[in-house]
Batch of 2 targets.
Target 1
Amino acid sequence: MTRLSRRTLLAVALPAMTPMLARAQSAVPDTADYPNRPVTFVVPFAPAGSTDILARLLGQKLEQQFGKPFVVENRPGAGTILATNFVAKSPADGYTIMMAVSSLAIDATLYKTLPYDPAKELALVALIASVPFVLVVNPSLAVNSIDDLIKLAKERPLSYGSGGIGSFHHLAAALFTSMTGIKATHVPYRGTAPALDDLLGGYIQFMFSDLGPALPLITAGKLRALAITTKQRFTTLPDVPPLDEAGVPGFDVAAWQGVVAPAQTPAPIFGKLNTQLNAIVSTDEIRARLTNLGMIPVGKGSPEELTHFLQSEILRWRTVVEAAGIARSE
């Protein structure tokens, strides 16, 4: 090939290669100045719920720390699966993250098929808070303790409510009935609020509820709290014992709220988000806000420790789901 022909070939080829080179460079996330543009912060529920409130609070603090917008985007539907699949399939560049809840681990066993693999396609960036649940009954029920409830359940049929099949309310109750040897009929509802309404009306006898919606009803005397699901007592209910102390030794479970991202997100970006989120949760302001939402602040754990935590949660709830024979096919 002559010098002229080589020059001619390069003159033709270089302009054609330039867009390809640009695309190749842009495909590699720039971690040094992350974030250099807005970050989408997905919430798998409708606005105004506790997860949405928490995401907006964290997003505001992250924006102050990084100097770039963290834009909350609500994507409700299919029990968090729509939003989770969207995030799992998003580019692993740190610009799409999600406020996740413990159903992320539960769904891995609850559903026969999922459009994503939570253990392989998603990673927990930061564990923000644990969410203790409280076992509540209608005050008209002649029950003042866990022993009373167990005794009554062995004398006559009882029913309990939940926020839906496979919800944390459901699984906590399934674990409780399994560990105590009682039988009770599960009545699923479309969310916590309608289940609590029927508990207040006396249509069901007990329920495991997250603290946020149950706490005002407990303090107003409309519901009676028998025990909480964690070994750690909750500050706003100091006289309510853990189930572990109240007659069910070894009972210690909590839902959780955490931030997740696509699993292949570069380690430096994971590190930046993990450090900032842990620091945010350690502040007195955020810890007080979390307590008011019925949550126990966590805000600790390296990305490696959180990977182990998520895997252990998947295994823990797989045992409960399979033992209770719970499954959803849709």
Target 2
Amino acid sequence: MRVVSLGGWVLAPNDGKVCDVRFNPKARLDTRRVSDRGRGRSGGGSGVALPGKAVGGGIGGVLIVVLFLVATQILGDGTGGSGLPGGSLDTGRFSGEDTERYANCRTGSDANEDVDCARVAVENSLYDYWSETLPDQAGLTFQPERDVVTFSGGVATGCGNASSAVGPFYCPPDATIYLDTTFFRDVLDRQLNGPSGAFVEPYVLAHEYGHHIQNLTGATDDVRTRQGPESDAVRLELQADCYAGMWAGRATSTDDASGQALIANLTQDDIAQAVAAAKAVGDDRIQKAGSGRVDPEGWTHGSAAQRVRWFMTGYEQGSLEACDTFSASSL
């Protein structure tokens, strides 16, 4: 099947037509919170401070850290605390200086032509959405994430060293989202048989931004049980999926600093891609792909069906209250 790339979102034909998902060409992009650290070393030392033990699985001959995973990893600071934003950030621990990968991303028109600029536009949209939604619905002061950092190979963070195998993750002490963009092709698509289309990376970024919101609300500190179908870890991840859905349902209402719409159009095909991505990273799907069996007691993120359910809950209801997975009697 031929695919067409528009604005960094790979759009698949539907009934012979290409979905017309576009950023507003008139929007101005803010690159201050998006940076690239280039290629870093992938290992050494004690590794990433994961909340629990990483599990390896062979898929297609490649070791997958089942990863507290894809599009979904939240890493602790190794002390039990979430590390709310504040204080100075030790930039010396990053793998390298900013490569200025995003320096030419200025407008929505750029986002329609370049995958990197599309990433900036999505971050800008998430920033605008949560800067209004968190104070309005929770009465809390919104503090933006410090950065979305892209890298290749490996990166050193306040949560420890991470390799590309970990997948996209949020580090609370840094208040930063980290991702190796090759993940979408090399792991999600090729190894987990997930979607490679439309709304996949925006869904992933929105999920990770959801972890930042949890850091601000204190939900991250409520995690006591790390594994199992009803565990706090699963509830945290499903809530982040729900928060991603909240943003997706209202993404076309987000604006740049001057009031110009950032995202001109989203389609049901885009949402279908987000749902497909959520299914692909369900614990049951990953376990089955890795070992051929499903063990709910080892879940850390929730099943495919649960992830879809909570994403759609956020998308349809659009409220923090509806996304309260910690109070839900059934996930």
